[in-house]
Specification:
There is one protein chain. This protein has three domains: 2-254, 4-Layer Sandwich (Glutamine Phosphoribosylpyrophosphate, subunit 1, domain 1); 263-432, Rossmann fold (3-Layer(aba) Sandwich), CATH 3.40.50.10490; 442-585, Glucose-6-phosphate isomerase like protein, domain 1 (Rossmann fold, 3-Layer(aba) Sandwich). By secondary structure, it is an alpha/beta fold. The strands form four sheets. It has an eight-stranded antiparallel sheet with strand order 3-2-4-1-10-9-11-15, covered by helices on one side. It has a seven-stranded antiparallel sheet with strand order 5-6-7-8-12-13-14. Strands 17-16-18-19-20 form a five-stranded parallel sheet, sandwiched between helices. The radius of gyration is 25 Å and the shape is globular. Helix content is 33%, strand content 22%. Bound molecules: 6-O-phosphono-alpha-D-glucopyranose (G6P). 6-O-phosphono-alpha-D-glucopyranose (G6P) binds next to helix 9.
């Protein structure tokens, strides 16, 4: 197994899908796969298999582990099956709404990630024809339409193709038909679906993690393609109806990356992987960096776009480009279309995304491309939708990130963004910055101090994170982490803004985190800290230099200023994680969230 991860394969869906047709029983394989894609959605789960000519479906509300026990999923028989773990969009979290969804007589079973926008019209038409529905999901219509089409064509692929033509919206589906226990069909539009090519078995999945360890050969499907797999064959049909032959890609992976090792949670493991992942982020192709630099310098207008944590890395990149005299804006992906007047031929959009599947980011780049802009992207997932929409792609090389809250992908983004800006500035060096790995290790050593803080402040209802300049996005990232993992209200903002409103909320005992490295903003930020302390705040300083104003001080090592966010964010990630643990939240699976949001 390879030790080095040069990127990994598509990630990112609001639900996790896996299907397998095999020469062996599949229940165990499906269950394993389901647990590995659970971070994409975890409110209900289910599995369907065909055995002895009969379809069996077991599913229910709850996490995979609960359903597994309650429904004894591992005892399901059959050499073909599909499985799903859900993040509810249409229809509440109930047993009936869990996937797989089936047609009237349970002839057809479907698992789906995405949203069928015209499901209400389709449902009404199907009901008129006598179809009876068992759930409130948009997905169920797909099973019913395929049932009708299969009756007519007796061809699983043709029936699925015909059904997809009726669908509006986004989907990645895997389809199983009782009469054809030798065949699985998949289809995708604006949601990821890949084929895993094994020996005597084939997989359909939303993510390579689902079958890692069983095969490393993957075929990426393009948008609107339909695929039919048997144990030994793959047939891909383009939207035009033409068949395409596509060879599998070998995926660089390491099975151990999917275990939690000795860590209690994936999130903690991923935080601790950062000494290694920040140096891996430097493994960039010189030519590609030069191409990024060339396009950025030549851009008539320049935007950096991203969502969530990736947006905070985008803000850091914008700061450095602006500092270098290059005008650009960082815009959250869901809002980029509002800047359409500045997106035209000659514009460049740099998109940052861990998964490469975030719907808002994909839509943003599509809008930009339509208006003539060129797209560059920085992703962790090789072969992801965003990578395929882009002119040039740089990889984060930080391995699979399973914890829903982004951690190691953020620090890798900071490194790669800095390399791009350095290339724009004509710097040639692409070796890891001296002392960075060691500095990250030192920042991680502050964990026991952070645990104390987590215990002390875990019962608070509000937290404020402030910083100035280049550190302001770090404050915003700290607040986002805390909200996601601990469910405590938190705000991150430039320290200069405090006096324009937020100071009114500071009272005796309010915890305020101040990210304040030595440098030109240091003294002003200390003054902000004093102002808050004078109003009763308990100030937690994250800095390379101690000061008396801090009620608590978390020391981070000094580094060149452009890389300080890498070490400053680590105590903030650890704080959010330990706060979640103290509050008995599951840090890997925060409520209501999904790792990558493939719906708008
Ligand atoms: C979701 C995740 C966040 C992530 C954001 C953007 O909201 O929960 O952790 O930062 O998506 O994801 P991306 O894959 O585009 O970086």
């Amino acid at each position: 197994m390879r030790a080095l991860l040069l990127g990994w394969t598509p990630s990112g869906t609001v639900c996790g899908i896996i299907g397998c047709v095999s020469d062996e029983e599949v229940a165990g394989v499906l269950l394993d796969g389901l647990k590995r894609v659970e971070y994409r959605g975890y409110d209900s789960a289910g599995m369907a298999t065909v055995s002895g000519g009969a379809m069996e479906v077991r599913k229910g509300a709850g996490r995979v582990n609960d359903i597994e026990e309650k429904m004894r999923l591992s005892s399901m028989e059959g050499k073909i099956g599909i499985a799903h773990t859900r993040w509810a969009t249409h229809g509440g979290v109930t047993d009936a709404n869990a996937h797989p969804q089936t047609s009237c007589r349970e002839q057809v079973a479907v698992v789906h990630n995405g949203i069928i926008q015209n499901y209400a019209q389709l449902k009404a038409a199907l009901m008129k024809k006598g179809h009876r529905f068992k759930s409130e999901t948009d997905t169920e219509v797909v099973a019913h339409i395929i049932e009708e089409e299969y009756k007519r064509t007796k061809d699983p692929l043709a029936a699925t193709r015909a059904a997809t033509k009726a669908l509006k919206g986004q989907y990645a589906i895997a389809v199983m038909i009782q009469e054809r226990p030798d065949v699985l069909v998949g289809a995708r539009k604006d949601a990821p679906l890949i084929v895993g090519v094994g020996d005597g078995k084939m997989f359909l999945a939303s993510d390579v993690l689902a079958f890692i360890g069983r095969t490393d050969r993957t075929i990426f499907l393009d948008n609107r393609e339909v695929v039919e797999v048997t144990r030994t064959s793959v047939r891909i049909v383009e939207p035009s109806g033409k068949e395409v032959v596509r060879r599998p890609n070998q995926v660089a992976w390491e099975l151990s990356d999917l275990s939690k090792s000795d860590y209690a949670h994936y999130t903690l493991k991923e935080i601790n992987e950062q000494p290694h992942t920040v140096s891996n982020a430097y493994l960039q192709d010189r030519e590609k960096l030069a191409e990024f630099a060339r396009m950025i310098k030549g851009a008539k207008s320049l935007f950096i776009t991203a969502s969530g944590t990736s947006y905070h890395a985008a803000l850091l990149m914008k700061f450095r480009l602006n500092e270098a005299g290059i005008m650009c804006d960082a815009v959250v992906s869901g809002e980029l279309k509002e800047h359409a007047a500045f997106l035209r031929k000659g514009s460049v959009v740099v998109a940052l995304s861990q998964s490469g599947e975030t719907a808002d980011t994909i839509e943003a780049v599509k809008v930009a491309k339509k208006r003539g802009a060129k797209v560059l992207s920085v992703v962790n997932a090789v072969g992801s939708s965003l990578a395929r929409e882009s002119e040039e792609v740089l990889l984060l090389n930080c391995g699979p990130e399973v914890g829903v809250a982004a951690t190691k992908s953020f620090t890798a983004q900071v490194v790669v963004a800095n390399m791009v800006v350095d290339a724009v500035l004509g710097m040639k060096r692409i070796r890891p910055a001296k002392g960075l790995t060691e500095a990250v290790r030192k920042a991680l050593q502050m964990e026991s101090k952070v645990v104390e803080l987590a215990k002390r402040y875990a019962d608070r209802s509000d937290f404020y994170f402030v910083a100035r300049g280049y550190e302001a996005p770090v404050a915003m990232e700290g607040a986002l982490k805390l909200k996601e993992l601990s469910y405590i209200h938190a705000e991150g903002m430039p320290a200069s803004e405090l006096k324009h409103g937020t100071l009114a909320l500071i009272e005796k005992g309010t915890p305020v985190i101040v990210v304040n490295p030595s440098g030109s903003n240091h003294a002003d930020t200390l003054s902000s800290a004093e102002e808050m302390k004078a109003r009763g705040a308990e100030v937690i300083g994250i800095s390379d230099v101690r000061d008396d104003v801090y009620t608590h001080y978390v020391q981070v090592p000094a580094l060149q200023s452009k890389l300080m966010p890498v070490v400053e964010v680590i105590p903030l990630q650890l704080l959010a994680y330990h706060m979640a643990v103290v509050r008995k939240n599951d840090p890997d699976y925060p409520r209501n969230l999904a790792k990558s949001v493939t719906v708008k």
